[in-house]
């Protein structure tokens, strides 16, 4: 769907695939997601018992890969607990790197055979794993899992659309792993970074979670989770400060659409007529750090997303808030904007809320605790120590934060494990 130039073809695929990531569909998928988050929490507990420094990029990447593997392929990748399928996140990262490079610099795709040759050891292993996942899934009944195969394969779907044929289906499933795995893992890693660098934000969020729920098991989608306004503000402020999609979402006139509906008249941006074949785009990082739209763009300030009634000091007036909301586009906008918003909010909300329920955490002592932030003295925009550093690989590459966790001893029994703390 992502690379379908034809409008009608794109919207057909989006309707078929999109059924899997609606809010309603997420309610059916939530138990599978929660089981993976439980594994994540168990791993954190094991590390905390050994007083280990935990790199949250690594942990969040594995969690998000396992969750999206279940959603896309109905397959338990188990990267959180085993090394067998660790090729998947690694291959997805190099794939994203290649795509990002070609998006930014299309003519370099001429060298694609060279890049593929460089990855010659990894690529066959990746396709082998992919074939294994597809073979396993196709040997199971269609409704054996709540995944893309169940929702979008063959036949005619619930919305009356022809479903996807096998090749298309599995390439959409692979795209999901990048689109839905790497992005959510960046979002969660960045939230851990900002929480461990802002004790005031951490304290306010921890209080909200710990006073809203009665147990960690209660943390699930529904009115109580939706009432956690500060949690949502932290998630939104993190996506503003560190947008998980680093590539510019380029757009161009839809003359490539073989079939109607095409846009009427030329593409006009801000009064300029854009000739067919010319790409236009605004990088999301630039948009979300534009001082004219977001006051104090380099400050991490979740309160900016609370309404005046929720926020006593009323730091921003209604007009400023309305402008910020209009310009807040980490998922891009329009009919090519992100299809997986509901999943991103659910996975990040559950993971962060449950981690704060069961643990206290802080940045690791010394140098390790600085990983993920900028470096003082640099002059290329990477000097802000409190800004989570992202590297453009279409989605985002990053490292850290490194944190140390302390179980909240009275609650870890709920996880089915005893804490020695
Ligand atoms: C924080 C998490 C996420 C962010 C920030 C994000 C951001 C984006 C952005 C900016 C685009 C538009 C790209 C472009 O137009 O060039 C996009 C597209 C897309 N995203 Fe997400 N995304 C996230 C999570 C997810 C998840 C969890 C899924 C599903 C598993 C998903 C599925 C998709 C799909 C299928 C598209 C292509 C839509 C189309 O072409 O119609 N995303 N995302």
Describe this structure in words.
- Pfam families: p450.
- This is Cytochrome P450.
- Keywords: Heme, Iron, Metal-binding.
- With 421 residues, the chain is mainly alpha-helical.
- The protein has a domain at 7-193 and 242-248 and 330-415: Cytochrome p450 (Orthogonal Bundle).
- Helices cover 48% and strands 6% of the residues.
- It has helices at 7-18, 23-49, 56-73, 87-104, 112-118, 122-138, 148-152, 166-197, 199-212, 223-226, 229-241, 284-288, 318-327, 341-358; strands spanning 54-55, 267-269, 272-274, 359-363, 391-393, 395-397, 402-407.
- It has a three-stranded antiparallel β-sheet. A two-stranded antiparallel sheet has the order 2-3. A two-stranded antiparallel sheet has the order 5-6.
- A hairpin with a 2-residue loop joins strand 2 (267-269) and strand 3 (272-274).
- The longest helix has 32 residues, at 166-197.
- The chain starts with 6 loop residues before the first helix and ends in a 14-residue tail after the last strand.
- The chain binds protoporphyrin IX containing FE.
- Protoporphyrin IX containing FE binds next to helix 8 and helix 14.
- Protoporphyrin IX containing FE is lined by residues 1-2, 14, 21, 68, 176, 179-180, 183-184, 187, 239, 244-245, 249, 330-332, 336-340, 343-344.
